[in-house]
Write a structure and sequence with these properties.
By secondary structure, the protein is mainly beta. Helices cover 7% and strands 24% of the residues. Strand 7 and strand 8 form a beta hairpin.
């Protein structure tokens, strides 16, 4: 949920908080909370813009030439073991009228997908140092020059409940540099320009995303393989440990989604490497309630994703929390997430289970 925080917490450097888009430079954030996920109701989707608010530039849009390599970077250390990200565009914006752009009704064209290892590569939990990983992509030829809203979304691999992060930035797409090309290349270029782009993946936003969640992947602590990642996709950590996401909550998503992702593992497959499955239990024991169509296995510890407007008990010894960590509260049957420098409302552990009192990237859950 979205909580107010004390002034000192709002002034804490984002380098020690949840992840936020750094490059390209994002829009001016309307209120505190750019590093928090989109609200579970989807109220501030897209771009974490509250209802009735408008896009506000914070400097000039970042120029990006078609076909040239671009770079995306992030600040923040609570990377939740990485996850999967998408870059997409909405627009064009006519005559620089950013504030008048109908953001809530906009469509998004996915131009690049990263499955696993985003926004940090090869991480078991959070970072102890600033995030130095950068990600490259190109504006494809099918995008016309003009001003656009650039979107980055992130589905974390590890967490207390399924979440959906999004930041947005203004960019100006400029024409590709002119160069001489032969006839076969011209034909290929024309074919590329006719290529349609997949819609932005949506989940974990209640009715807005059609009830679609990433809870099954989160329970296995695996990054998702998108139903339709599009033609530009990278897998920094390989395709072996990806969870093939079945649902897509975007109401505009096509029925044929998934055809472009045949080499991702099937959702029914046990995606845990055999060596680690037989030798030791996972490093992080946090799991969540699976989607209604999937029953938890007998060995799966289940955490309820219900929320509360009540802050965690102020008498708890875990008030000074680490951003992004999960805290099993003193009663051993409730947990909370550290967001914005303080704990969110307590959430109950599933009946029949308990957690070990303490704080960390995951919860240590066992039968009661």
């Amino acid at each position: 949920m979205y909580y107010s925080v004390p002034l000192f917490a709002a002034l804490v450097s984002l380098s020690t908080a949840h992840v936020v888009l750094e490059t390209p430079k994002p829009f001016r954030f309307i209120d505190y909370g750019p590093t928090n996920p989109i609200m579970s109701s989807g109220q501030d989707f897209p771009c974490k813009i509250p209802s009735g608010a408008q896009l506000e530039l914070d400097g000039d849009p970042t120029p990006m030439a078609i076909g040239e390599e671009q770079s995306v970077s992030f600040s923040g250390q609570a990377v939740h073991g990485g996850g999967s990200c998408q870059f997409s565009l909405s627009g064009p914006i006519v005559n620089g009228a950013w504030a008048n752009y109908p953001l809530k009704d906009s469509e998004w064209k996915v131009i690049h997908s990263i499955e696993g290892g985003c926004p940090a590569r090869n991480q078991k939990g959070n970072l102890d140092v600033p995030n130095s990983d950068k990600y490259s992509f190109k504006i494809p030829d099918g995008i016309e020059p003009g001003d656009y809203v650039f979107s980055w979304i992130w589905l974390p691999r590890i967490g207390g409940q399924p979440e959906y992060y999004q930041n947005c930035a203004p960019i100006t797409v400029t024409p590709a540099k002119t160069k001489r090309i032969n006839a076969p290349d011209r034909r290929a270029l024309r074919a590329t320009r006719r290529t349609s782009f997949p819609q932005l993946f949506m989940a974990n936003m209640g009715d807005l995303s059609g009830g679609c969640t990433t809870s099954e992947a989160l329970a296995k602590q695996l990054a998702i393989a998108f139903p339709n990642p599009g033609p530009s996709v990278e897998r920094p950590e390989g395709a072996e440990n990806l969870f093939k996401q079945q649902c897509d909550g975007n109401p505009r998503a096509g029925k044929s989604q998934g055809d472009d992702n045949d080499n991702a593992p099937d959702a029914s497959t046990d995606l845990t490497p055999e060596s680690s499955a037989s030798s030791s239990k996972p490093s992080f024991a946090t799991s969540v309630v699976p989607s209604p169509s999937t029953a938890p296995s007998s060995s799966t510890a289940v955490v309820s994703t219900s929320t509360s407007d009540t802050k965690a008990d102020p008498t708890s010894s875990f008030e000074a929390c680490v951003e992004g960590h999960l805290t099993c509260l003193d009663d051993g049957v409730h947990f909370a997430t550290c967001t914005g420098g303080q704990l969110t409302g307590p959430q109950p552990i599933a009946p029949g289970f308990k957690c070990k009192v303490g704080s960390g990237v995951g919860l240590d859950i066992s039968p009661a």
